[in-house]
């Protein structure tokens, strides 16, 4: 096998590997985008739940104040 043939085989193998890596990279970008979107959704949901919790705490404080005034 000549040096030229060996070189051509190596180049072809590198080309195939490069294409596989490009494909894998594209797939990983899609996965990352999906995970990022999911994470943003979860952060929004957490923020909404925190607001709801604050509202419930305020309601509880009002009820406690009313009960204390009735008992006084």
Name the descriptors:
72 residues; mainly alpha; rod-shaped
Specify the number of helices: 1
Poorly predicted spans? none
- Using only C-alpha atoms, the radius of gyration works out to 31 Å
Tell the overall outline.
Answer: rod-shaped
Please state the structural category. Answer: mainly alpha
**Secondary-structure element series:** H
Distance between the termini: 102 Å
The biggest beta sheet reads: none
Oligomer: single chain
Summarize the structure in short.
With 72 residues, the chain is mostly helical. It has one helix at residues 3-71.
Describe the structure.
- The protein is mainly alpha-helical and 72 residues long.
- 96% of the residues lie in helices and 0% in strands.
- It has one helix at 3-71.
- The longest helix is centred in the middle third of the chain and has 69 residues, at 3-71.
- The protein starts with a helix and ends with a helix.
């Amino acid at each position: 096998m000549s040096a030229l043939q060996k070189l051509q085989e190596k180049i072809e193998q590198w080309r195939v590997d490069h294409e596989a890596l490009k494909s894998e990279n594209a797939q990983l970008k899609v996965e990352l985008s999906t995970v990022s979107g999911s994470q943003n959704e979860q952060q929004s949901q957490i923020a909404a739940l925190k607001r709801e919790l604050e509202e419930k705490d305020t309601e509880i404080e009002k009820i406690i104040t009313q009960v204390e005034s009735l008992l006084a």
